[in-house]
Design brief:
Elements (H helix, E strand, L loop, with lengths): L3 H21 L2 E7 L6 H14 L3 E7 L27 E4 L8 H12 L4 E5 L10 H7 L11 E4 L5 E4 L8 E12 L13 E11 L8 E9 L4 E11 L2 E6 L5 H4 L2 H16 L20
């Protein structure tokens, strides 16, 4: 027979098991920031809050601060020191563009991604980083690079993609900044399934002429750039060995990241990169003809 104290202890134990079980079922995210030519202190909290709001993820933050940055902590207190072993994570989300990571961390990411033990998500200027890291360029497919660095992909109105070899055309830029439309090109992919064919996105830098190996790509959505007079890849995935990479050059600042379309895309892309599937329904505030902003 249980005493009152015994019953309380049993109840507390069962409650703890339930809580641990719930946490164990969530996708474990490592968000990396600490350096960027964009305002990572403002945007990292949006990424973290957006992911956690789905109930699908737990998010640890690690900040690679250096020099004067080390004296100005971010708006999120890092939950783990940098660098950290990736063995406890299902997916790495990069909001980072700065000094090279330690080789041990790079090797850890390369090996785990290649073996399908971790996923990778690239947001906006994270594709500016690490031009000299060969495997990183394979992982991200294309990034902010000089035209001599690699190939680029452009897409016509019908959705037909054309590869432009390195050295031809322009280097990466954003020859248009403003509101634009995202056009879904692969509506059967788990990330974009159910999305309207076209949806409105608020003022953002529309990256163009992304350059790189441009191998093992699946372009999920594009946007027409008035600057280049062609459609540019805005949402795409890359296969790296057995690993999955989700890449979006959307999300320059707070205004762009507060777009319900951007947040949904990253939420779904992160789940897909980690698991290969998406279990999230399209939210009611997902944009259509009009921009949808989350306050």
């Amino acid at each position: 027979m249980f005493t009152n104290l015994g019953r309380f202890a049993l109840f507390a134990g069962l409650l703890l098991v339930g809580q641990n079980s719930s946490a164990a079922d969530k996708i474990r995210v490592l968000l990396v920031d600490g350096q960027n030519n964009h305002n990572w202190r403002a945007t990292s909290p949006i990424i973290k809050k957006s992911l956690e709001s789905t109930g699908k993820f737990t998010v640890d933050v690690t900040s690679n601060l250096s020099g004067k940055e080390a004296d100005k902590p971010g708006s999120i207190t890092p939950t783990v020191p940098f660098p950290v072993s990736l063995e406890n994570y299902d997916v790495l989300v990069s909001n980072y563009n700065g000094a090279s990571w330690p080789k041990s961390f790079n090797d850890d990411l390369e090996g785990r991604l290649r073996d399908g033990k971790i996923g990778l998500v690239i947001v906006h200027a994270a594709n500016n980083a690490f031009g000299g890291w060969k495997e990183w360029n394979q992982m991200i497919g294309m990034g902010w690079r000089d035209k001599a660095f690699g190939a680029r992909v452009k897409v016509d109105d019908s959705g037909k993609a054309e590869i432009i070899e390195k050295g031809k055309g322009d280097s990466t830029g954003h020859r248009y900044t403003g509101e634009f439309t995202v056009v879904v090109r692969d509506g059967e992919h788990p990330v974009t399934k159910g999305m309207p064919k076209e949806w409105a996105h608020p003022r953002d830098e529309l990256y163009d002429n992304l350059r790189g190996p441009a191998e093992n790509l699946n372009i999920l959505a594009t946007s027409y750039s008035p600057g280049t007079k062609t459609h540019e890849p805005m949402i795409f995935t890359i296969s790296y060995g057995k690993g999955r990479v989700f890449h979006t050059p959307l999300g320059h600042d707070l205004g762009a990241m507060n777009c319900a379309g951007f947040q949904t895309t990253v939420e779904r892309g992160t789940e897909w990169a980690a698991t290969g599937k998406v279990t999230q329904d399209l939210p009611k505030d997902f944009p259509g003809e009009k921009v949808s902003i989350r306050k």
